[in-house]
Amino acid sequence: METHKNRVDRRPGDDAVLKQYEAYPYPPRDPRDEAKGLYISRLSSLPDVNHYLFRGRRDFSEPFRALVAGGGTGDATIMMAQQLADRGGPGEVVHLDISTATRRIAKARAEARGLTNIRFVSASLTDLPNLALGRFDYIDCCGVLHHLHDPEAGLCALAGALVPGGGLGLMVYGEFGRTGLYPLQSVLRSLGRGLPLKQQIPLTRRLLADLPATNWFRHNPFLTDHNRGDAELVDLCLHSRDRAYRIAEFVDLLAAADLAPVAFIEPIRYEPTTYLQDPLLIKKAQRLSVLERASLAEALAGNLKTHLLYAAPLTDAAPRVAQPDGPDAVPLLSAANSRALIKSMRLDLSVTPAIDGLTVRFVLPPLTSAIFSRVDGRATLGQIHGKLQAANPDLDWPKFKAQFDQFYKVLNGLNAMHIVYPKPHG
Description:
- The protein is of the alpha/beta class.
- It has helices at residues 14-23, 46-53, 75-87, 100-113, 151-159, 181-191, 197-208, 230-237, 247-256, 279-286, 290-301, 335-344, 368-372, 381-391, 397-413; strands at 2-4, 64-69, 91-97, 118-122, 136-142, 162-173, 259-265, 306-313, 330-333, 350-351, 354-355, 358-359, 362-363, 417-420.
- It is globular and about 75 Å long.
- The relative contact order is 0.12.
């Protein structure tokens, strides 16, 4: 289903943003590639959404409505719609975007997969209060707020479209990981003034090849999208409107919309102890509040070019995250993140994932292999404990749980394991 709405609340620069995405749909996708597999969108996994926003207890066989605000060429929309279709429940995904070019690509991708549970709407997310689209259990808004003339108004519009108990997944650019980009954008605006966007592309490539050795962009290893193609180069270097946030600024933006962060993704990246070795420094960092620790971590790491988090209304923000509190909890591996994690596991019971250029070593407990081999998304902690205790009668529940918690802290911190609770019988 397609819906076309006239945009309201036009702001300076809106036309330039629209023209950019009409000419260079982002991210570039070919509907024929749907036969090769599903593109992974980082905040669109239903098990993740269930874990962080619904305490692991959401039944997706019941009606579920999701909005992808600023859906672009459809990664989040397709991923979420496919998962809902696979579960056979009465779910609907609304794909909202200002660009007709990106919508056509997203729609073609849906048709290639035979998905019929998507509604396509052409409008700005700031128009949401006027679109009569209803309310949503979950809203995915990644890479959009930082392109709006008024991000606060946009986020308020999203918050107002949630059902009671609903939540959001949000992504904005991070300041430190984009070091050097904004001076480069300023240079390009000066050199390319008055030129059509198409002519600015070769000019940009000439500049990138001619940057002096001291240029910060040249030394930033995390900004590589421009090497892939024209659409990526335009989105990174020639975007007519974007800004970056520090964690504290992002949280302030949430508060202005009466929202609160529920969890940063990946959690372990927002803990300063991930980056520190000195015991005294670690002790001091552990005394800080959650927000202070997150702010310290982003300053220490320096490689966070985006910030991803789950959020909920201030009046309904806790408790949202599932916890492995008892024997009925079911640990579930993330299909997207666990593969790389398994490859990095070592015989000395440590894991050394590469986090955007930084290798960090986490020590795992002795039962790691035994627990890991029994996590299948169906077995409860009680059942896993029972099988291990059958081979080791001295392994009581407290001993097992202490080791599981150590194991889970690392894997969940890397967003590679979540908790789900079985649907009650009867």
